[in-house]
Design brief:
Length: 176
């Protein structure tokens, strides 16, 4: 369920941004009555467009490199809220891998976040649940139990891979 303040923020985006766009976009229209008429015509269209576009994505995200997990609420690509997940079932818990990564690898990196599990996705007009294709575990369960040199080499390879290469490597790893 989307928190109330995020819902209010969605409504503010849907109300204020279209009005701003219409007022700025029709400022060039000459004549007061023509400007008022154009603003009255375009404002409802902008409301409808923004109510469809203002999407919120709420769920768990995981770093493909270090296994860190966050719960996030995202609107227009901006994280409105993020933090550690409130509760994580054992099969999803990547904290042991995070500790192993810090002690065994410890290489600083830029997080490469992907959606994991089910996400609530909605806009002002509708909502629903979408499940991410990326699996929760796989590599972070098995990797620390491998030969330390092999595990370090695999992590080193994922560190220098692109986002798409990382996804493919880790998804193939989960197939074994």
């Amino acid at each position: 369920m989307t928190p109330g303040w995020i819902r209010a923020m969605q409504w503010m985006i849907v109300i204020l941004l279209p009005i701003g766009f219409v007022w700025l976009g029709t400022g060039w229209v000459r004549g007061r009555s023509a400007r008022i008429c154009s603003r009255l015509c375009f404002t409802p269209l902008c409301f409808v467009a923004f109510s469809v576009v203002a999407r919120v994505d709420e769920g768990k995200w995981q770093c493909l490199v270090c296994g860190a997990m966050e719960e996030r609420v995202i609107c227009f690509g901006w994280a409105l809220e993020n933090g550690p997940p409130e509760s994580v079932p054992d099969f999803e818990d990547s904290r042991p891998f995070e500790r192993w990564y810090k002690s065994a690898v410890g290489t600083p990196h830029e997080h490469d976040w992907v959606r994991v599990g089910c996400h609530q996705r909605s806009n002002i007009l509708s909502g629903g649940v979408a499940c991410a294709e990326y699996p929760y575990s796989g590599y972070f369960r098995t990797l620390p139990s491998l030969d330390p040199n092999l595990a370090a080499a695999m992590v080193e390879r994922t560190l220098h891979a692109t986002h798409q290469e990382r996804r493919e490597l880790l998804l193939r790893f989960g197939d074994r």
